[in-house]
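Bug report (template v2)

What were you trying to do?
Predict the complex of my protein with zinc ion.

What happened?
Run completed; filing so the output is reviewed.

Input:
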Amino acid sequence: MKNEKATAKNTSENFYLSDSECRFLYKAAGKVLHNEVIIEIGDYYDNATLWLASGAHEGNQCKLYNMQSRFDLIDQTEEAHTERNEIINIDTENNAIAGYIDFSYSDSDETVRRWKYKIALICLNVFHRYDDMHEILNGWERHLAPKAGVIIFNCSTLESSQILKDKTGNTGKFVIEQREGSLALIRLDKCIHHWMLDSSDYGICRYCNRTRNFRKMLKESRSYETRRRTLSNKQSLIK
Ligand SMILES: [Zn+2]
């Protein structure tokens, strides 16, 4: 499955970024401050990485880390690993911008635990199941700077669009800042909401216009409570 996608990405033009998507990455990277960092989690090192690197380099010269995702490391073959390193080496020799990118980390629980830098921008450039992408983002979110953004790639796929919906939806912590082609930039929501509710408990924030369906949230938490109570009742009967 993953290999099919790898082939598709390597051979098909569809997966390469348009000029406007490249400009979008370049600009987003250029805004990151010098004392903050960008991490790109990607199965592949491609033109997106180079655009981020040029933006960072010509902007405030923040550090840019490109890491393979934890799910790619697990089933990575020796061959693929060598191939990736060869590509990186070729580009580093020929391209000063590629030399600007730090490839020395891989995404993992361990890397997240030991991470010391404030992240201003996470680029999630992977093709994976929803659960996998969710796990990657949730791990890294604890290192986000106060106004940090996340760029989600491949939003035309079901999995990425679900992540986008999830992060910016009813209980999400982010708001959509900008979309460009298949990319979406979301940013941590800093608003201290002031909800105005209508008769069906549908809220709208008077400051940021964010909407939230309180009735749905209440239903969800009640059904969770019921499940929990039923479970603990059963357990006390067993005792
Ligand atoms: Zn608000």
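What did the reviewer find?
The pocket of zinc ion is lined by residues 191, 193, 205, 207-208, 210 (CB under 6 Å). The chain is about 45% helix and 20% strand.
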